Automatic annotation (TrEMBL):
It comes from Methylocystis rosea. InterPro entries: Acid_CoA_mut_C, Cbl-dep_enz_cat, Cobalamin-bd, Cobalamin-bd_sf, MeMalonylCoA_mutase_a/b_cat, MMCoA_mutase_a_cat. Residues 527-655 form the B12-binding domain. Belongs to the methylmalonyl-CoA mutase family. This is Protein meaA.
């Protein structure tokens, strides 16, 4: 006879959707809609000006406002973002790093306006600045000063917001930058160690320090190598338990638990045959939910069409339903860990732990995570690993269905039509600037100035920056003003690019490309010179770095200064260096605005080099760019870097005729 009694089920992980775009009010509508569909936590995406401490009317913000997230310029925007959403009842994840102290200050100020006490606030600020220098690029200040801000938020929340996770050690973007599983383990754990060592050195009592350890969470990535990724999560859990017990002497087992949220891999999503991405996302999710002893506490999934552009509400809903079906329709949550005792799993976990510990030892010998960032060690390793990954795809050694194998097939009805992705209207930026100006005019100017001066004093005197930031938020200070104060005290920083000046590839398929570059260079009478530029605030430099590496390997003279240049700076560099071609890498959706600005300035300065643009660029925008005079447009479907290099040589040759 069947046992009809209902088995005990574990509570599901938290369902999140990473979202935010256009304006605070539009994002608020999206959040409320997603919550109504069964989402159980908010995950806020902020736009690039907000992430890097600029107001929307700054020159570097041009074209970036509301594109990759929601603009939050002041307390009024934070109010609008949570209109009708009770902050005291919400678990809110904020993907914010360099300006984490400021956004948390705005969040607390908005919560207190709703009558929500600080002690009730639940959620996470990412607040992981180390990975910004390595992969995502949304840093502002030098490492030492940035780590001080990270520590300030940890110390503040421990006392004031004990339910809030003040730091989410983020290895997600490390994998997006090419990290191997053992590198992802090592670099994330090295970051956590650097932060905890700093907090402990501040003289915190042992009992309070154990609570800090218990509030540190992680945000990880899961790729397509399913067994390896599952073992990576088990290795993470075991290594964290060992570090917290042995290095920090945390006695309470609960405070030693590895707590993590996950967004599965976006790097592997393909523009070709994008419907295949649904299966990829599902398989990647399995790696972080199947093993109970290393199960994610929160999961957010990309949409199937993110390689094409900004997903629509339906696309996000589809990914949310994937989680809900796994949690509620299967029997997964009725069982213990189904991998315990498996010899293959145990062997792979041990292998990953050994590799990660060896890399951790190397980082410690260099002086820790901050030192390894400043000398470019970790960044160089990531660029090297990403280069190897791309080369294996180009060579067909790593199969990607629809890209380098099984490329034929029927056209996808899902990816046709004019409304296959969401497009942020161009008027959003002008309207946000207008609201910002109105906010500045309406506030109490004396109160705002007094708050700004107090911020500066706190920064100079080494005081905790959170409480002065909350006071500034309530006084109407803006994101850009907060950023300017700290830039004035701490200075700004440009991280190493990780791009070596020496060629990596020798022989093979690149020989033919080198021959073409050499032929064109001889025709020019000098080495063909290629400027790789990252205009605006887009810090995702992985693609630009790989283009720069391959261009050097191919024989080009390459100019690459890293992220965050104005169009004027790039045009000036091209004129000064005599560049034969300018390449813009833009993944933030601001490609049309920034390319038009570069073209205008090139004409004004008499720079006649051809311009090429790469990024996540919809077909309609590609048409606009070509009509404006862009010589070539490259998107994720152009994975063959040697083909791009040959193309660039021919573009330079044609322009020289």
């Amino acid at each position: 006879m069947n046992d009809m009694s209902a088995p005990r089920r574990d509570k599901p992980w938290m369902f999140r959707t990473y979202a935010g775009h256009s304006t605070a009010s539009e994002s608020n509508k999206l959040y409320r809609s997603n919550l109504a569909k069964g989402q159980t936590g908010l995950s806020i995406a902020f736009d690039l000006p907000t992430q890097t401490g600029y107001d929307c009317d700054h020159i570097l913000s041009r074209g970036e406002v509301g594109k990759v997230g929601v603009p939050v310029s002041h307390l009024g925007d934070m109010r609008a973002l949570f209109d009708g959403i009770p902050i005291a009842e919400m678990n809110t994840s904020m993907t914010i790093n360099a300006t984490a102290v400021w956004l948390m200050a705005l969040y607390i100020a908005a919560a207190e306006e709703q009558g929500a006490p600080r002690a009730k606030l639940q959620g996470t600020t990412q607040n992981d600045i180390i990975k910004e220098y390595l992969s995502r690029g949304s840093y502002v200040f030098p490492p030492t000063q940035s780590l001080r801000l990270t520590q300030d938020l940890i110390l503040f929340t421990t006392k004031e917001c004990p339910k809030f996770n003040p730091m989410n050690v983020c290895s997600y973007h490390l994998q997006e930058a090419g990290a191997t599983p053992s590198q992802e383990l090592a670099y994330a754990l090295a970051t956590a160690v650097a932060i905890l060592d700093g907090v402990k050195a501040a003289g915190m009592p042992e009992e309070d320090f154990a609570q800090v350890v218990g509030r540190i969470s992680f945000f990880v990535n899961a790729g397509m190598r399913f067994v390896t990724e599952l073992c990576k999560m088990r290795a993470f859990a075991e290594l964290w338990e060992e570090i917290t017990r042995e290095r920090y002497g945390v006695k309470d087992e609960k405070l030693r638990r590895f707590r993590y949220g996950v967004q599965v891999n976006s790097l592997g999503l393909t523009e070709q045959q994008p419907e295949n991405n649904v299966y990829r996302i599902l398989i990647e999710m399995l790696a972080v939910v199947l093993s109970k002893n290393a199960r994610a506490r929160a999961v957010q999934l990309p949409a199937w069409n993110e390689a094409l552009g900004l997903p629509r509400p339906f696309d996000q809903q589809w990914s949310l339903r994937m989680q809900q079906i796994m949690a509620y329709e299967t029997d997964l949550l009725e069982y213990g860990d189904i991998f315990d005792g498996n010899p293959e799993i145990a062997r792979k976990v041990a292998e990953l732990k050994a590799e990660a510990m060896a890399e951790l030892k190397k980082i410690e010998e260099l002086g820790g995570a901050a030192a390894a960032v400043e000398i470019g060690y970790m960044k160089g390793k990531l660029v090297e690993a990403n280069t190897a990954r791309l080369e294996s795809i180009e060579a067909g050694e790593q199969i990607v269905v629809g890209v380098n194998k099984f490329t034929g097939g029927e056209p996808s009805p899902l990816a046709s039509g004019d409304d296959q992705i969401m497009v942020v209207p161009e008027h959003v930026e002008a309207e946000q600037i207008s609201r910002l100006k109105a906010w500045r005019e309406a506030r109490d100017q004396k109160a705002a100035q007094a708050a700004i001066e107090e911020l500066a004093r706190a920064a100079k005197e080494g005081r905790n920056m959170v409480e002065p930031s909350i006071a500034a938020a309530k006084a109407g200070v803006t994101t850009g003003e907060w950023g300017n104060v700290l830039r004035g005290v701490f200075g700004e920083y440009r991280a190493p690019t990780g791009v070596s000046s020496t060629a990596r590839q020798v022989g093979g398929a690149l020989d033919a490309v080198r021959g073409e570059v050499e032929r064109v260079s001889q025709k020019l009478g000098k080495r063909a010179k290629f400027l790789v530029g990252k205009p605006g605030l887009d810090g995702h430099s992985n693609g630009a770095e790989q283009i720069a590496v391959r261009a050097r390997d191919a024989g080009f003279d390459v100019i690459y200064a890293g992220i965050r240049s104005t169009p004027a700076e790039l045009v000036e560099a091209a004129k000064k260096e005599g560049a034969h071609c300018i390449g813009l890498s833009i993944l933030s959706g601001s490609h049309v605005t920034l390319a038009h600005e570069v073209i205008k300035l090139m004409k004004q300065e008499g720079v006649e080099a051809p311009l090429v643009v790469g990024g996540i660029i919809p077909p309609a925008d590609e048409k606009l760019l070509r009509e404006a005079g862009v010589a070539a447009v490259y998107t994720p479907k152009n994975y063959d870097l040697n083909a791009i290099m040959t193309d660039l040589a021919h573009i330079i040759e044609k322009a020289a005729v």
